[in-house]
Amino acid sequence: MTRAVLIAAPSSGSGKTTLTLGILRALTQRGFAVRGAKSGPDYIDPRFHEAACDQPCFNLDAWAMCPSRLKSLAQSDADTTLIIEGAMGLFDGAPNLDPALDGKGASADLARVFDIPVILVIDASRMAQSIGAVVAGFVGHDPRISIKGIILNKVGSLRHRDMLVRALAHVDVPVLGAVPRSADIIHPDRHLGLVQAQERHDLDAYLDTVADSVAAHVDLNAILALAGNVASAPKHTALTPPAQTIAVAQDAAFAFAYPHLLADWRNQGAEISFFSPLANQAPPAVELTYLPGGYPELYAGQLASNHHFMQGLREAAARRAVYGECGGYMVLGDGMIDATGQRHKMAGLLGLETSFATRKLHLGYRAVHSDCGLFQGPWCAHEFHYATTLKATGTPLFKVKDAMDQDLPDTGLINGSVSGSFMHLIDRA
């Protein structure tokens, strides 16, 4: 049986990730069976969840995944409590001109699908009595959402805490904790989110510090008691793998591969191996070499000089399929210009030139369709990068619409057995 609770907030930056990590680590230290999940398209936070509780973490994307897929991912064979971390604000989702679809994919959608309670994390650092109005507004906004607890975060003092609690006395939702403001639990970030888990050599010590703070100031037993049962659903049909033997690039430059896709491919009989371009490893001799997204722009010079990797990639493309997604797509191109303006020669397998010298945000859910290549048909995807495309010469890979069903320019490239795009594929449409 799986029980679950959603950790949400009025907005980004409220401290959901930090508190979720503290809850996962503190409960794990006490011997409870817990695991984490992350709402929406996020590659970075789930790896912290895994480190906090030593259990796999999947994304639960209510825009791109149907209810049966969501429930299948949430279920566990063991008796487990699932701590789901929301994304952005509780009701923030994809825009749509249709009122019935506006906000689709919000964390609130997961609470509805699973029929589970919400714990609302409030950044109280700049609040006093107004917190009562904020919480009352969220509690009454949607009768289908059940907010069952509040955690006050970034509290300035005991006097500040008492003031906040008094202001919430008229709201029929218990305060489960008040976590003081502390520089020790702040985590550094960069342009796509938090600094990655594998980049923190002090990760265990950091997680223990966060867990100590949460355990001292949050009622963990109350959180466990609030968790609601997740209804079972028919097992979701796994996605067909694009090849039967697949080599996946995996290191600090290429870390953005969705675990649910890799799990689907394995469940359908594919053999998956890993290699590290940053360690100058060439891809093994397999049917498909897959370069996922990540931060190759931070390592462009190193990747360009890793001749064993680059030559192995070109040899793989000469005989087998190669696919690049976002950062991996850029590495398959002719060149990449880093943030300092220096150009680095890439694999030269696609007519693509990209630059980070002038950053431009590309962000949003995408509905894509391809008539060729490895991922034909309709897919739900998302785009999130700061690269500028200086050149994209060749045959486009995907036709694209945004979340509002508006046409966007064709994207990606396909050149024989080599293909890729900036789109992160999530699930079949």
Characterise the protein shown here:
- Strand 8 and strand 9 (193-194) form a beta hairpin.
- The chain is built from 12 helices and 25 strands.
- The mean pLDDT is 95.
- The chain has 2 domains: 2-229, 3-Layer(aba) Sandwich (Rossmann fold); 245-428, Class I glutamine amidotransferase (GATase) domain (Rossmann fold, 3-Layer(aba) Sandwich).
- Strands 1, 2, 3, 4, 5, 6, 7 and 10 form an 8-stranded mixed beta sheet that branches. Strands 12-11-13-14-24-23 form a 6-stranded mixed beta sheet, with helices on both faces. A 5-stranded antiparallel beta sheet has the order 22-21-18-19-25, with no helix packed on it.
- The protein is an alpha/beta fold and 429 residues long.
Features:
single chain; 429 residues; alpha/beta; Rossmann fold; 2 domains; eight-stranded mixed beta sheet; six-stranded mixed beta sheet; 12 helices; 27% helix; globular
What's the short version?
This protein is an alpha/beta fold and 429 residues long. It contains 12 helices and 25 strands.
Number of helical regions: 12
Specify the CATH homologous superfamily of the largest domain.
P-loop containing nucleotide triphosphate hydrolases
Report how far the terminal alpha carbons are from each other: 29 Å
From the spread of the alpha carbons, the general shape counts as globular
Helix-residue proportion? 25-40%
* Unreliable stretches: none
Find the count of extended strands (DSSP E, 2+ residues). Answer: 25
What is the fold named in CATH at topology level of the largest domain?
Answer: Rossmann fold
For the largest beta-sheet, the strand count, sense and barrel status come to: 8 strands, mixed
Please tell me the overall pLDDT: 95
Under the CATH scheme, the architecture of the largest domain is 3-Layer(aba) Sandwich
Number of domains: 2
CATH C-level class of the largest domain is: Alpha Beta
Q: What is the CA-atom radius of gyration, in angstroms? A: 22 Å
Class by alpha and beta content: alpha/beta
- Beta percentage is 25-35%
